[in-house]
Amino acid sequence: MTERQEIPVTEGESVVAVHHPASGSDRWFVCCHGFVSDRTGSYEGRCERAVAEGYHAVRFDSRGCGESDGRFPAATLSARIADLRAVLDRFDPAAESAVLFGSSFGGKTALHAAAGDGPGGDGTPDERVRAVATRAPVTYGRAFDPLADTVRARDGVEYAPGHSVDERLVDDLDGYDFVDVADALDLPVAVFHGRDDGSVPLADSLDAVRALDVDTAVHAVADEGHRFSNDAEAWMRDALFGWLARR
């Protein structure tokens, strides 16, 4: 049975998380959703699979998304890293016991948090994390350059229906560089990316993999875009947990 929790991040603002328990396990699988997503949908299926593989699993809504407090324009990368750290602090996984899984912007959140960037980080890798897995991750800031130009020209835009962004997002992104992740990260990384992704180029993931000096698995999935089909999602889960079993 799942457990719903409200986890304070700042005074007056909390995130909503769902814990899928795994009896007798000391391993954790923590999901970070994409930019305009939330903890529902595929994240529930991923967490159920993680439990079947012997992991406690957690999925949560970042502030400004889903059921969590806050407004979307304030959901910067820094805010999402703080949300992830608050979730990790609540469940308190032991050293090298947690796998972070992030899709799209959630991949960027997971990578920078694991490397020790952002609020609550000290520039050294988070000792609780033993691996990071990503699907279509945002790595280099250049993926957001066109949006940043538009935001600064118009003082904000509606990124998607009901999801407006302003200079808080793009100014915050300027403070993060994937080079810092590549320099700091010392744990295995898996990347799954559709070859036909029109939102985040596969080339960004390939460049990121080349920059990382760690055990890295990269899967360029044919005929898949930014959102995976059901078949590709099922294949990714099999490949992901097979990879983790060998780490």
TrEMBL record:
Query: Keywords assigned by UniProt?
Result: Hydrolase
InterPro entries reported in the protein's UniProt record = AB_hydrolase_fold (IPR029058), ABHD10_acyl-thioesterase (IPR052382), Hydrolase_4 (IPR022742)
Question: Which Pfam family, any one, appears in the UniProt record?
Answer: Hydrolase_4
One example GO MF annotation: hydrolase activity, hydrolyzing O-glycosyl compounds
Gene3D superfamilies per record: alpha/beta hydrolase (3.40.50.1820)
What residues form the membrane-spanning segments?
Answer: none
Q: Where is the Serine aminopeptidase S33 domain?
A: 29-115
Q: What is this protein called?
A: Alpha/beta hydrolase
Query: What organism does the UniProt record list as the source?
Result: Haloglomus irregulare
